[in-house]
Design brief:
alpha/beta; Rossmann fold; six-stranded mixed sheet; globular; binds glutamine
């Protein structure tokens, strides 16, 4: 019996998954893993997994969604790993489990698995997060970033310019993140604070691993970013080029355009 705190995604029980019925594999199965949805999804970032699962299905693939909770074995198959935001206390709660799966996650990243880590999980995929109280939470070092908590928080709407076009979202973090030499940022700030309110960068990207402070959740209003992650995952899952379907993203386009024009005029 799954825990009542679990949430279903696309109507499927969260902690189990339903592989495709024989003959209905579509273009292939894509396994999504959402890490710590109970502890690390305080700003609705579970919506990213819901968005990805829906878009995977609309592109003609079969989404197989796993929720990973502390203490559980990590799913055997993972093509797309997602993590969301959390309070400092939530990050401390998942530290031990994250360390337990550190080698597996580093291996998945090195092998090209797609990953989207938002805010608190972005910080923990870096080298370390030192909280405002001075507690050091070691990170996985998959992204070469280091974060220091502050007394003041960086809160508000954000517009970035990125390789995936303008990206819109919302930030709420005390952490100031600095990029290591040679670490590529996810984007450049056009409106908002970004990594540290001083160097004009936001997030970080290494290979197919994207880290960002943007909540919203970030993916529904940024379909180009969502499809980039799905494309990387589809190629991992099938060994073939991504075969996207033509999707009607008019609602997302309007939401995106409204945010950009509201913030940039
Ligand atoms: N607790 C971290 C901070 O305050 C991350 C916050 C978040 O995930 N929104 O910076």
């Amino acid at each position: 019996m799954s825990d009542p705190r679990d949430v279903t995604i696309l109507g499927e029980p969260a902690t189990s998954h339903r592989p495709a019925d024989p003959g209905h594999e579509g273009k292939g199965e894509i396994h999504l893993v959402h890490m710590y949805p109970r502890e690390m999804s305080i700003y609705g970032d579970l919506g990213n997994t819901r968005c990805l699962a829906a878009r995977v299905r609309r592109h003609g693939y079969v989404p197989v969604v796993h929720q990973h909770h502390p203490g559980q074995p990590f799913p055997e198959t993972a093509h797309l790993v997602v993590g969301g935001g959390g309070q400092d206390s939530g990050q401390a709660k998942v530290e031990e489990d994250l360390e337990r799966h550190a080698d597996r996650l580093r291996g998945l990243a090195a092998d090209g698995a797609a990953m989207l880590m938002v805010c608190g999980m972005y910080q923990l995929f870096g080298n370390a997060f030192v909280t405002v109280e001075g507690q050091t939470l070691p990170g996985l070092g998959i992204l070469d970033v280091t974060t220091q908590g502050n007394a003041t928080r960086m809160i508000g709407p954000v517009v970035l310019s990125t390789d995936f076009g303008d990206v819109v979202g919302y930030e709420n973090h005390s952490g100031s993140t600095t990029l290591g030499a040679g670490q590529t940022p996810f984007g450049r700030v056009r409106h908002g604070s970004g990594n540290n309110r001083s160097d004009g960068t936001e997030g970080a990207v290494s290979g197919h691993v994207v880290g960002s402070y943007l909540h919203g959740p970030i993916l529904p209003a940024n379909p180009r970013l969502a499809d980039a992650l799905i494309g990387w995952a589809a190629e991992q899952a099938t060994g073939r080029d991504f075969q996207p379907a033509e999707l009607d993203d008019e609602v997302a386009r309007q939401a995106h355009a409204r945010q950009v024009s509201r913030l940039l005029g």
